[in-house]
Amino acid sequence: MYRDRVRLPSLLEKVMSAEQAAALIEDGMTVGMSGFTRAGEAKAVPRALAERARQQPLKISLMTGASLGNDLDKQLTEAGVLARRMPFQVDSTLRKAINDGTVMFIDQHLSETVEQLRNHQLKLPDIAVIEAVAITEQGHIVPTTSVGNSASFAIFAKRVIVEINLAHNANLEGLHDIYIPTYRPTRTPIPLTRVEDRIGLGAIPIPAEKIAAIVISNQPDSPSTVLPPDSETQAIADHLIDFFKGEVATGRMSNNLGPLQAGIGSIANAVMCGLIESPFEGLTMYSEVLQDSTFDLFDAGKLSFASGSSITLSARRNAEVFGNLEKYKDRLVLRPQEISNHPEVVRRLGIIGINTALEFDLYGNVNSTHVGGTRMMNGIGGSGDFARNAHLAVFVTKSIAKGGAISSVVPMVSHVDHTEHDVDILVTEQGLADLRGLAPRERARAIIDNCVHPDFRGPLNDYFERACTRGGHTPHILREAMEWHINLEETGRMLAAV
Amino acid sequence: MYRDRVRLPSLLEKVMSAEQAAALIEDGMTVGMSGFTRAGEAKAVPRALAERARQQPLKISLMTGASLGNDLDKQLTEAGVLARRMPFQVDSTLRKAINDGTVMFIDQHLSETVEQLRNHQLKLPDIAVIEAVAITEQGHIVPTTSVGNSASFAIFAKRVIVEINLAHNANLEGLHDIYIPTYRPTRTPIPLTRVEDRIGLGAIPIPAEKIAAIVISNQPDSPSTVLPPDSETQAIADHLIDFFKGEVATGRMSNNLGPLQAGIGSIANAVMCGLIESPFEGLTMYSEVLQDSTFDLFDAGKLSFASGSSITLSARRNAEVFGNLEKYKDRLVLRPQEISNHPEVVRRLGIIGINTALEFDLYGNVNSTHVGGTRMMNGIGGSGDFARNAHLAVFVTKSIAKGGAISSVVPMVSHVDHTEHDVDILVTEQGLADLRGLAPRERARAIIDNCVHPDFRGPLNDYFERACTRGGHTPHILREAMEWHINLEETGRMLAAV
Questions:
Q1: Locate the Acetyl-CoA hydrolase/transferase N-terminal domain: which residues (chains A, B) (predicted)?
Q2: Is A431 annotated as a binding residue?
Q3: Distances (CA, A) of A447 to A359, A362, B405
């Protein structure tokens, strides 16, 4: 059943149960696991580890690519396994533990984790746990639906546990392009100049003797839960596509727009779906996660190539895509997240980065992570990797939340993840603000006039105008700057009178 | 006198007075001028422009490399010439006009201005005004003490005014390396892999017929005004050098540390001076501005190569260095600021970026620009270009200001230029906080214990501990988060009781 998946015969003796493999993980260890946007995470070993920890307490520091699926972060949190966690997560149980201070969470730009490991600025993993579709004749590891940080974790770790997941189609092999930057001070340029370039290997090259255990599993990735477009996300998509049409009309962008990156979530998904009906042709993606919309765009004949670090699909799309992978395979590549998100490549290619904001302020500073300035939602993810170096840094959000109790546009954000220097375009269902080349007072005018919900436009304009009378390059009334957030915390609404 | 400096004879007929050249600049134009950290700015034409505007009002949008010397921003502001200004400045008169809303100032990452011009996201300059030591036989422009954005301004502008400044030593020729990234979508990697690499041309290549005027000037750059180390800046330098020693001892850094970048100012200067007495050898710099300390390090035999975008020296050092330039010339190069600050190169080389903070907060967010959250000081400059992609992002400041009325470490910064994701090391005269791999609550502990002045340590610790009882990944008490800033605004002191 799995002998064709472990093609170096000497490794067959390393096949063992998940429980046996999990026993290699000791209290206090640093562990690097595969998994990115709930795709391609090791499944059996972390579950066995959580079960063991319920009997025999242990704590580890856990690094992944990004989020894990199959409730693994939940199980590990409930079993008390996680002392430290980085660089991203999306699990509500883990989120609670992060916010109550039980788990130390390091929220990182997704391109930076392995760079810091390479420089020994973070502790190297003792063990890597990597999901694979196969181990090659050379003992190299072929990842599944994500690459994430798996390659560098396997290279840096002393020992590697491989989970061969039979639920994944074996023909995923050939999809991956594993490129690892060389060491400083003799590092050379990343030789990627086009979205479709293949610059690395098809599998993760490690010495076969580092493989300490092979576990056979058979469990699919969790399906994605992206909501279909609603009238508001559709309006956001329409505003952005109208803007793109204008850029093409003035010659600032070509009719293929340039490589697109879209974050996770329903709004980014609506924007990508909107491109199906658009006049643009020959689109490309250079993104982190490839979602249903990527394949919808392929099927519509709009997309010519997609590069990512993972593929995360809905239950419906999953069987269609992976059951017919040959249809897409020559137009797809999965890369390490260090490369999918690398500032060098993002700047070179001129990416259009579309990411979701929790809230933004008058001047275009964006909060992507912290509810009420204090409580972590998921993490910054790759949004900063893209926004800083993008050709266009676009942030999208609905203008209000919680039935109008919350305005997503506020006088001052309660937490800053992206400074106004890194934000070009803001879009809500109300409209689009093009902030390029504007000074802060001009940015405020564009944002108030275009993005704010009518219920909050008057109060925000009032704040801005009173702030301007006090002067300053970026006018504020510090005594009132946090008031909407404080009101929300204390009364459940940002404005009493609305 | 200047015929050996204008080596294409057909251009000699373009020689005219500054007043005649300034007349080419019309009301409403966008003008790109040379000048970076008060080095190499065009001097005669902007002065003539200011004089003319006093008689005959006109307004322009002015872009430079960074700051101008010789009070030019002051004169242009007083004459009412500046409608818009980007991407950096240091002049107190202009600062006032920016803060009262008279001049629209666009505060940009210094690597990004010409990228935005290249993509037509900013209006291209109608005219460029570039200081030069010479015009070559091909009509190419040899810059003086800075490259800044001059090359791209000259390439993008319809017409170019060249100021041949006889006050600069002609042997500056040969110091510059002009490399311009190719256009997307066929852009290739920047082929720079070592600090000392020369990858471009010695002069700015433009068609000679674009040169509309040549003005002969004879006025030196303004001298720098860096203060010598005092006991506090010396303590900051000592803490950082001790930290470097530790990194070398553990093998995380080699004995040449890696390429150094140091911002402008007395603290960064003290750190660089501190390296003279350090055990490190074979140092290199890959920075924006090369100051006195660069040449002190050369003379001490500590520095093997320095790459920058400008040279700004004190009156004392100016004659010594430029009078003996042959002594240093083979160990020096000046590049466009797009290349000196380019994220691709900064990440590849693994730069140690040392920049000055106005203030930072409990969690390591840094304010580099806005006094009291509203009033622009100078601009973000290159600090973000370096901090985001550096091997080590270091920010330095004295722990208190105004005789103890102000703490530079606050509960929440009043403005964010560098988020906690981008800040590795914080240093005050009190000590050094190493934030690498720490979660926010751990960062706060390291900062309070190491960086805060004793007068503010108790109150800050009290805030942090009370915030932690309320929970959150990044605990805050929003009602109090801005209180120290509000106190300062209203009473002149951050804490009443101190």
A1: 12-215
A2: no
A3: 12, 6, 36
